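Hey all, sorry for the wall of text incoming. These are the two entities for the joint prediction.
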Amino acid sequence: QVQLQESGPGLVKPSETLSLTCTVSGGSMSSYYWSWIRQPPGKGLEWIGYIYYSGSTKYNPSLKSRVTISVDTSKNQFSLRLTSVTAADTAVYYCARGPSSGEEFEHWGQGTLVTVSS
Amino acid sequence: QSALTQPPSASGSPGQSVTISCTGASSDVGGYNYVSWYQQHPGKAPKLMIYEVTKRPSGVPDRFSGSKSANTASLTVSGLQAEDEADYYCSSYAGTDYVFGTGTKVTVL
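and here's what came out:
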C-alpha cells in the first residue's frame, strides 16, 4: 500500500517562501500524477497543482504565479514551493497520489500544518 | 473556479439514510463524469469514497453510493453507522483544474 508523508517547516514568515516535500513509500512514482492540496483551518479543500512522474506540471490558475512543483524520482519525492506567502496561505498541506484515471485523488498523506506569521 | 456548493450539514439516525448534494456548473460537474467524494474525520486526511460519480474503491462499504443529474452530484450513505459521522467533500474535474465542494458535516443522531 502506497504511503505519503509531508515534511517541512511549520512556520513561515510573511513574504517568504513555503517549501514542503512529500516522500512516497510502498510503491513507485512511475506512471502516476502527484498532487498538492491544502485546507485552511476550519475550511474546505483547495487543489494546488500536480506533477507527472516525468516532470510535466499543471497548477491551479489562482496560484499559478507563485507555485512550483518538482519531482525527484530517485528519492521517491516531490516538492512544493509557494512564494510570497501571506496569512491566507496558512493551511494544512496534503500531498496525494492523483489525479488517477477517474480524476480522483486515491491516496493522501497525513497533512502538515503550515502557519504564516511573523 | 468557484467551489462546488454543498449543504453545511446533514444528519440521520443509525440505520437511516442521508443524501448529500454537490452543485456545480456545466463546466465542471455537468460537463464530466469525474465527480469524486471524500470522507474526512477530525484531524485526519481525506479518504476517497466514490470516484467517477458511482464507483467505489476497494474496501469502501456498499452503503456508500453516488449519482449525478445535470449539474448536481449526490452521495447517499445508507444504513448510517456511528463511524460515518464526518465531513464529506465532493470534487470535480473542471477541464483544466480540479474544484472541491464546500463540505458537509454529517451527524449521526
